[in-house]
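seq as requested:
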Amino acid sequence: MARVGVGRPRCGVGAVGLARVVSVAAATTAGESTLRLVHREDYIGAVRAASADPASADQSYGLGTTDDPAFAGMHEVSALIAGQSVGAAEAVWRGEALHAVNFAGGLHHAMPGAASGFCVYNDAALAIARLLELGAERVAYIDVDVHHGDGVQAVFWEDPRVLTVSLHEHPRTLFPQTGWPEETGADSAQGSAVNVALPAGTGDEGWLRAFHAVVPELLADFRPQVLVTQHGADTHFEDPLAHLAVSLDAQRAVQVACHELAHEYADGRWVALGGGGYAVVEVVPRSWTHLVGIAAGKPVDPVTMIPEGWRQEVYARTRQLGPVRMTDGRWPVSWASWEDGYDPADRLDQAVLATRRAVFPLRGLLP
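struct tokens:
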């Protein structure tokens, strides 16, 4: 069964028939003790204060800034999103659901003591912290958002129980300017942080090649008990905030791969989160609908036509024409396997090599 958290732009889940095969569960808001698994008490207090009086937001905590403007109810909304991800993690760990999805989550930039990059409370880190609290000894976090998952990495920098893997646009060209291959974890957890910094312009073949050249081998070594994944849709070529050129079909291929990896290495335990995504008509609804379908065991065929009723609603709300099909026309996508060799002069292969050379020997693996 898949649990689905709601709270971001409406997906086309119901429009393509998935409402009949998913269980939509309302999780409780994350309380103070839960938030403190990751966030400092003074920071939570600052968020509460800004939520009650946005004009008083303390910018030293990253609140009231361009990226994280203060608004009435900010604490309540952010704590609810966090509670959904924590609830998803609890359901998977306790066996109430094999897979759980909260596409409102994935707010991976929030730090223990500061908001950052549109993120107030780090629901991904909170979900992982809750899994550890419940007894999990190995949790793997895979982040395929176009931006580095810096907040999650920072929270577990010293914790060898958590493997964080982030594939993102190179920090030279994109916020938050972190996520270099050399960032591999603290001395107490060397090799627990993994970063694949992809050249701007990377498309489907390179993105998938990098994912499969790094992630499966690390999971085979780490043997996680739970897989937590973040599926920011902002890698897409139509996304306005970044510079990768990934299609919806490649995003779907990685979602399928994460599902398969969860079953291969984590007894199927999979918590899937949303993330960034700013092409809110063309990309976000389709990408996360695919994610829900895969988690529910009812993947949506890429050639599926999107019902006219949903497109009419999109136009009424946004005055934009919605997409016609659940594909960008690139399915099935393909890539060259790393095992077949690499080109040391190729920029994508250089990025993959940098990661493998930095991390794999630390884990006793060949680069």
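The CA atoms of residues 9 and 280 lie 7 Å apart.
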